[in-house]
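As agreed, record passed on underneath.
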Amino acid sequence: MNTPADPNRIDAYVWRISAVVIVGSIMSILDTTIVNVALATLGHRLHSPIAQIQWVVTGYMLALAAVIPITGWAARRFGAKQVYLLSLVLFTAGSALCGLATSATELIVFRAIQGVGGGMILPIGQLMMADAAGPKRMGRVMSIVAVPAMLAPILGPTIGGLILDNASWRWIFYVNVPIGVIAVLAALRTLPWLKAGAAGRLDIRGLVLMATGLPLLTYGLAEIGITGSFTAVKVLVPCLGGLALVAAFAVHALRVPLPLLDLRLYRRPTFASASFAMFCLGAALFGGMILLPLYWQGIRHETVLDTGLLTAPMGLGAALVMPLAGKLADRWGGGPLALFGVVVTTLATIPFGLIGAHTSILWLSVAMFVRGTGIGFAFMPVMAAAFASLQRSELAHATPQLNVLQRVGGSIGTAVLAVVLQRALTGVHTLGGAASAYGTAFWAATALTALAIVPCIILLRAERAARAATREKDPGVPAEALAEAVTA
C-alpha cells in the first residue's frame, strides 16, 4: 500500500538547487567583506589616495545597484538558469581581471564588471530557490541557506587578514576564480533548464529611471561616510536626484501594464509590511556591523585576523537559530518570530552603548552572540513571509525589489552610523573619550534597530488578519494549513 507523499517534505532536488545558490552567494558576499579590509593595502600598493581607492568598493556597489532591477525581466525573458550562469561567469571573469590590474583605474573598472555579475547572483538564486521550494516550505529552505550567507561577512575579514599577511593582495580576487569555476560547473549540472517565458517588451523608460536613480542614491549614501556630513553638496545632489528618479519610476510603474518591477505587489499587506521590515532590518544589521570591527582595531588595537575572529560570535548566534526560525516561520508565520528577534536584537545592542576602552571581551562576545540569535530569528522569517505572500509568477518581480530594499537599507544604516561615529570622535584626544564615542554610535545603532519593531508589528497583524479571514471562510481548516493563509 502506497502512502501519500508528505506535502511538507522538502525534496532532495530543492536542496541541490539551494546548495548551488549557496556557492555563488558566498562568493559574492565574501568578496565584498574581504575587499573592505584591504583598502589601505590596495591604496599603498597601487599608489593611490584613499579618496580614489574607495571607488574599488563604491564602483562595485554602483554597478550592483544598476543591474538588480533588470534581473526579474531578464529571468523571464531568457530563463533563470541562463541568467544565473551569465552572472557567475561575469563575476568570475571580473575577479580574474581585478587580480591582473596594474593601476587603481583598471581595478575600479574591473570591479564594476564584478558588480554587474554580483548584482544578479543573489536575486536570481533566491528566485530559483523560491520557485523550487514553494511558499509553504520557504522558511525552512531560506533559513538553512542563510546560515553560510550570514557567516560569510564574519569570515571575510578573517580570510582577508590571512591573505594579506601571507600572500599578494591579488589573491583577494584570485581566490574567487576556482570557486567561480566550481559554481558554474555545479549550476550547469544541477539547475533545471527553464524555458523563457512571456516577459513582454523591456520597460525601457523604467530601466532608465531605475538604472540611474538607484546608483545615484547609492553614491550619495556612500559619500556621507566619506564627507562626514548629510548636507554636503556631493551628498545632497545625488541623493535628491536619485530619490526623484526612483519616485518617477514608481509613478511610471503604476501606470503601465508591464513595468520593469511590479510595484502593485505592495498592495498586499503581508508583502508590503514584510518589505518595510526588510528595509529596516537591513539598516540595523549592516549598519551595526561596521562599528564592531572599527572598535576592535581602533580602540583595542587588534589585528585584522583577530578582528574577524572577535566578530564571529554574532554570526555563530545567527547561524545556530536560523534553522529553528525557518521551521517555526513555516508553522506560525514570520511576524511573531520577526518581532521577537528584533526585540532581542535591540536589547542585546544596549550593552554596546555602555562600551569602554577596557570592557571585558568575554562580556562583549556574549552580547554579540545574543544579538546574533536575535538577528537569526528576525531576518529570515521576514524574507520567508514576503516570499510566502506571492504566487510563483510574481517571484521574478519580488526578488529584485527585496534585494534593493535590503541593500539601500544597509547603505542608509551604514551611512548614518558612520556620520554619528565620526562626529562623536571629533575633538577626542584620549582613549577613553574615543571609546565613549563608539558608545554614542552604538546607542544610535540601538535606536536604528528599535525602528524595525514597527514594521514587524504591522507584519504580525497582517498575518493574523489573513488567518482570521481563512478561518471565517472555512472554520474547520487545520492549524497547519493556516500558515499558508498569508499567500492569499
